[in-house]
Amino acid sequence: MNYLFNSAAVEKEALKILQEFDKARYRDAFISDKPDIQNVSLGIGTEVTTVEYNKIVLNFNMERKNIIEYHKMKKSPKLKKIKFKFLQELPENHELLKQFFSRNPVYENKLKLPMEIENLESLRNTPDNSDVYFTSDFMMQNINEKFEILLPPPSTHWMGTLSSEMMKALYIKEEKLINYRKFNEINLFINNSSGSVREIEDVKIKVMEYNKTEGCQFNRIYITDGWTTSKVHEIILNN
């Protein structure tokens, strides 16, 4: 999925998707610039952009970072180990210890390497001034022996924000059209993998209202839905 942030790869994928989605209109189209996809014979130009929930972008940047770097980038809560020092005096099977270890505590040693506090001995060996982070089971299951993240962690709670980001992208692209080659029909292809169908339906409503009140400069808007159904949603505007 890292191709999502490679513009050349995204444009190539967009052309492929459009040629499968609407062969008659895009069969003779090719990759170009200003706009990105052009079918000169039919007078159709299509600009391509990628819109993702901002935390998806952050999560892609976390891939292959170690678990401590992950916590620092996420600004995860941290506590000094000295706050847990009393646990060292408890019996090994004490319920409080079990709860502590079940939260997957980790810290960074003097060599700047991640260390897991997985038992009473490792707790005792952890310096009192160490910053301790608690880690989800998902993250612990998706790290290697060096504590490097193997998979981008999932993002949630983007509902209601992604549609606004798509509208911002539309406005920005409209401002740039003045410098683009003129076509009888100009379209916008929004590459997206982090939005739900509900989010895309919200974009449709906003686009139609915007077109009614302001007049959208694009004739058609395509939005990919790779997260849920791997389909293309088409918004046709009568303008």
Task: Explain what you see.
The chain has 239 residues and is an alpha+beta fold. The protein has two domains: 2-55 and 157-236, Trna Endonuclease, Chain: A, domain 1; 64-141, no CATH class. Helices cover 36% and strands 18% of the residues. A six-stranded mixed β-sheet has the order 1-2-3-8-9-10, with helices on both faces. A four-stranded antiparallel β-sheet has the order 4-7-5-6. The longest helix has 17 residues, at 197-213. The protein starts with 6 loop residues before the first helix and ends with a strand.
| Mean pLDDT, all residues | 87
How many domains? The number is 2
Query: What is the CATH topology assignment of the largest domain?
Result: Trna Endonuclease, Chain: A, domain 1
Poorly predicted runs: 155-159
- The proportion of residues forming helix, as a percent range, comes to 25-40%
- Topology as H/E string? HHEEEHHEHEEHEHHEHEE
So how many helices?
9
Distance between the termini: 35 Å
Rg estimate, integer Å: 25 Å
**Strand order across the biggest sheet?**
1-2-3-8-9-10
- The assigned CATH architecture of the largest domain is 3-Layer(aba) Sandwich
Tally of strands = 10
Biggest sheet features: 6 strands, mixed
Structural class: alpha+beta
Structural shape: elongated
Strand content: 15-25%
CATH class of the largest domain equals Alpha Beta
